[in-house]
């Protein structure tokens, strides 16, 4: 079906076949039985934080440009391991790249076991071998020696779907896993910036602090347009991400505007605070979020997963640690020790769930 879509013989609307409710929502909201423009190959459901599917309209040329630019950046076409749901753009692009490379992918469940991962990597055979994962999957693999060794044998392990915890990145580097950090979204046919540098044919600029993306991989727009329209400027997509570009052209994504915490008249980006908190030796993972505060408007809170063998840090410990790299205003005013970070979709941190859980404290 993907091959037919790329050849202009079909238009696909990928859905999670195991989730009837979500499938019904996608097919109804995105009007599966209604016509779309002839050049649209795939309509990828994307709701961001709204919960209402918008549907990125991706052409065959955009999907192909993304796949070819990915292979060019990684050192050539190869065989892919599919470990992400194909109805998400990251999983879809594994299928597209496989069609372009002329090599069938090897598929395993997103919640793969270590045994399944080792088998799948072995099944890829010789030649260049690639996989696209989210950070939670990489973290899981790193907990097993065999799975870790299997990933270390790959030519590239793409990590997307959101920021990667510093601890996971360090463990992966120590194990020799060739991690490539990717940034992108459904509206850009998947990852379009690798390790801070845009792929061939991709344009990146900063406007009013926001990351703005353009170029060959860009979607035509949305099936269900939104206001304000992020595609309003021809050839560009205005993201909700705050970023900066250095003198070498490297993009750093600092956080999302809709995650920003307004505290005492100041704006705090959670991702910056998370990086500071996560560098504490007792912290394995953390999420920073805002909760309502009568005096400040919002106060900065942090949910922390304690590192194995460590004693849970106190609020004073965390505040003092953060203050060594950031303004004290950004330091959390409360912390919550939890066993696991809540996630949604393909592994994105669910800040809203944490804010709902702890908002009354």
Automatic annotation (TrEMBL):
Molecular function GO labels: o-succinylbenzoate-CoA ligase activity
Presence of keyword Hydrolase: no
Keywords from the named record: Ligase
Gene3D superfamilies: 3.30.300.30, N-terminal domain of ligase-like
InterPro entries reported for this sequence: AMP-bd_C (IPR025110), AMP-bd_C_sf (IPR045851), AMP-dep_synth/lig_dom (IPR000873), ANL_N_sf (IPR042099), ATP-dep_AMP-bd_enzyme (IPR050237)
PANTHER family: LONG-CHAIN-FATTY-ACID--COA LIGASE (PTHR43767), NONRIBOSOMAL PEPTIDE SYNTHASE PES1 (EUROFUNG)-RELATED (PTHR43767:SF1)
The protein's name: O-succinylbenzoate--CoA ligase
Superkingdom of origin: Bacteria
Enzyme class: ligase
AMP-binding enzyme C-terminal domain boundaries: 273-348
Catalytic activity, EC: 6.2.1.26
Ranges for domain AMP-dependent synthetase/ligase: 31-208
């Amino acid at each position: 079906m993907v091959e037919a879509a790329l050849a202009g013989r079909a238009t696909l609307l990928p859905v999670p076949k195991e989730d009837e409710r979500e499938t019904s929502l996608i097919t109804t909201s995105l009007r599966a039985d209604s016509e779309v423009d002839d050049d649209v190959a795939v309509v990828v459901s994307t709701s961001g934080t709204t919960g209402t599917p918008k549907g990125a309209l991706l052409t065959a040329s955009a999907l192909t440009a993304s796949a070819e630019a990915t292979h060019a950046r990684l050192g050539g076409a190869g065989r892919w391991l599919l470990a992400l749901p194909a109805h998400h753009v990251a999983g879809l692009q594994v299928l597209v790249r496989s069609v372009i490379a002329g090599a069938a992918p090897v598929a395993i469940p997103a919640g793969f076991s270590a045994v399944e991962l080792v088998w799948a990597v072995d099944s890829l055979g010789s030649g260049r071998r690639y996989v696209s994962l989210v950070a939670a999957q990489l973290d899981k693999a790193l907990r097993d020696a065999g799975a870790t060794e299997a990933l270390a044998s790959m030519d590239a392990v793409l990590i997307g779907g959101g920021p990667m915890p510093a601890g996971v990145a360090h463990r992966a580097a120590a194990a020799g896993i060739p991690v490539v950090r990717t940034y992108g979204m459904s509206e850009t046919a998947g990852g379009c910036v690798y390790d801070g540098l845009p792929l061939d044919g991709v344009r990146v600029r900063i406007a009013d602090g926001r990351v703005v993306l353009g170029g060959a991989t860009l979607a035509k727009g949305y099936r269900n347009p939104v206001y304000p329209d992020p595609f309003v400027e021809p050839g560009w997509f205005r993201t909700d991400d705050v970023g900066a570009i250095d003198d070498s052209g490297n993009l750093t994504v600092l956080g999302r505007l809709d995650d920003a915490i307004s505290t005492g008249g100041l704006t705090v980006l959670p991702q910056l605070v998370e990086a500071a908190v996560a560098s504490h030796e007792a912290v394995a993972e953390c999420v920073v979020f805002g909760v309502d505060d009568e005096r400040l408007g919002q106060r900065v809170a942090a949910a922390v997963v304690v590192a194995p063998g460590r004693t849970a840090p106190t609020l004073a410990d965390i505040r003092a640690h953060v203050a060594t790299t950031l303004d004290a205003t950004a330091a959390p005013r409360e912390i919550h020790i939890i066993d696991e970070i809540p996630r949604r979709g393909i592994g994105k941190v669910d800040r809203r769930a944490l804010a709902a859980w702890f908002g009354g404290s």
